[in-house]
Automatic annotation (TrEMBL):
It comes from Actinomadura parmotrematis. Residues 187-397 form the Glycosyl hydrolase family 4 C-terminal domain. PANTHER family: 6-PHOSPHO-BETA-GLUCOSIDASE, 6-PHOSPHO-BETA-GLUCOSIDASE-RELATED. The keyword Hydrolase applies. InterPro entries: Glyco_hydro_4 (IPR001088), Glyco_hydro_4_C (IPR022616), Lactate_DH/Glyco_Ohase_4_C (IPR015955), NAD(P)-bd_dom_sf (IPR036291). It comes from the Bacteria. SUPFAM superfamilies: LDH C-terminal domain-like (SSF56327), NAD(P)-binding Rossmann-fold domains (SSF51735). Residues 281-300 are annotated as: Disordered. It holds the Pfam family Glyco_hydro_4. The keyword DNA repair does not apply. This is Glycoside hydrolase family 4. One of its GO terms (molecular function) is hydrolase activity.
């Protein structure tokens, strides 16, 4: 079997390699075909993978492909994990909206729209050469990308995000419950999911009662977690919000904070990357490398590899993925790409029936969905008017003039990555 990795020079690769190692027995004999546009990073990560596989006696071979098409050729799975335009483009996604008083975020809001406009053409090109392969996609915004690939190509695609795992872990800590025995029904849209049901060892917990007793913790936010705001929000809602909910329910405060902070998340990541890659490069020359876990050190890699194994081995494993709704969430149209628990096996992901979204966030989630469909259509067609409508439909924006300013600046700034708008 062959698994192609598009974006194999990514800083997240050490985690992916660890994920492959953790399923090495199930993947014995597999070729890992690595492609990236950054030749230096590609070389480092390929060497790291080879050394780590050899050190653990894993029967996995690594091939390196500076060109995309040979990497895809004959692959059963195409794992996509790249940022079109890199972190420099992400900086623009985060800073342009902020100049106009709107949260600058790489996946939610206008920043996410700009990223979708860059990601979708690349994914559609990959889809064209995918043949029968499954595209297992991490490239953001994963739901919009998944929707565009599903509607504008014949390729088979599954959208991933490991946020549900990290968020369940955060709630386990906040509620003082053992993470490894918890299961939450996160439903909605990627980075806009909600959980009304939480089980411990399979038994339903009384979530409203748990939340009523929850004390809002002190302390500030990290790049990934904002427990104080999450707790405050959950107590108001009576169910669990995902981490990105803060951008919707604390929008104006977050704008102030982002402005006061002075640097974007992209700039912060860019600043740490040289030391990070130096560490990984040094490890890649050792016999038994132990690369840094600073990027994608959590569940990211394992989750992706587990998904591939679930399809390949027809495991019908319950995983939270982005998939065509087909009635799983009654509050969203059947064609919507939703993020829900699904059984993942040979025929892909079969979403489990989850019922309605809680009323307090139903309208919000439906509005985000309409934005996402417009965003996918704009990204696939290069229709500026659809892109403008997408921004006007987004709950962060609404104002036509603000939408126009952000879009004009965004299209100009990202010109080189937007062939469909030329
Ligand atoms: C979470 C999200 C991902 C996103 C990442 C960014 O994991 O689920 O979709 O790409 O955060 O993390 P970073 O460290 O680059 O800010
Ligand atoms: Mn995500």
């Amino acid at each position: 079997m062959k698994i192609a990795i598009v974006g194999a020079g990514s800083g997240y690769l050490p985690g992916v390699i660890r994920g492959l190692l953790h399923r090495a027995a199930d993947l014995a004999g597999t070729e890992i075909a690595c492609h990236d546009t950054d030749a230096a990073h590609l070389e480092v990560m390929a060497r790291l993978a080879r050394r780590m596989f050899a050190a653990r006696g894993a029967d996995l071979t690594v091939t390196v492909h500076p060109e995309l098409k040979p990497a895809l050729d004959g692959a059963s799975y195409i794992f996509t994990t790249f940022r079109p335009g890199g972190l420099a483009a992400r900086h623009l996604d985060e800073s342009i909206p902020l100049r106009h008083g709107v949260v600058g975020q790489e996946t939610a809001g206008p920043g996410g729209l700009l990223m979708a406009l860059r990601s979708v053409p690349v994914l559609l090109d990959i889809a064209e050469h995918a043949g029968d392969a499954w595209i297992v996609n991490y490239t953001n915004p994963t739901n919009i990308v998944t929707d565009a690939v599903a509607r504008y190509s014949g390729a088979r695609v599954l959208g991933l995000c490991d946020q549900n795992i990290g968020d369940t872990e955060m709630w386990a800590e906040l509620l003082g419950l053992p993470f490894d025995r918890l299961e939450a029904d996160w439903i909605g849209l990627n980075h806009a999911t909600w959980a009304e049901r939480l089980r411990l060892d399979g038994a339903e917990l009384d979530l409203p009662a748990l939340l009523a007793g929850l004390e809002v913790p002190g302390g500030g936010a990290t790049p990934w977690r904002d427990p104080a705001r999450m707790a405050e929000l959950a107590k108001a809602l009576g169910f669990l919000p995902n981490s990105y909910a803060k951008y919707y329910f604390f929008h104006d405060e977050v704008v102030e904070e982002l402005r006061a902070k002075g640097t974007t998340r992209a700039e912060d990541v860019l600043a740490m990357l040289p030391a990070y890659y130096a560490q990984v490069e040094a490890e890649s020359r050792k016999d038994d490398p132990d690369p840094s876990r600073e990027r994608g050190g959590g569940e990211h890699g394992e989750f992706a590899v587990d998904t591939i194994c679930a399809i390949e081995r027809d495991e019908r494993r319950r995983m939270i993925v982005n998939v065509r709704n087909n009635g799983a969430v009654s509050s969203l149209e059947p064609d919507a790409i939703v993020e829900v628990p699904a059984l993942v096996g040979r025929s892909g992901a079969v979403p489990l029936t989850m019922g309605a979204l809680p009323r307090a966030v139903r309208g919000l989630t439906q509005a985000i969905h309409e934005y996402e469909v417009l965003a996918a259509d704009a990204a696939a067609t290069g229709d500026r008017r659809l892109a403008l409508q997408a921004l006007m439909a987004h709950p962060f924006v609404r104002s036509k003039h603000t939408a126009e300013r952000i879009l004009d600046e965004g299209l100009a700034a990202h010109r080189d990555h937007l062939p469909q708008f030329r």
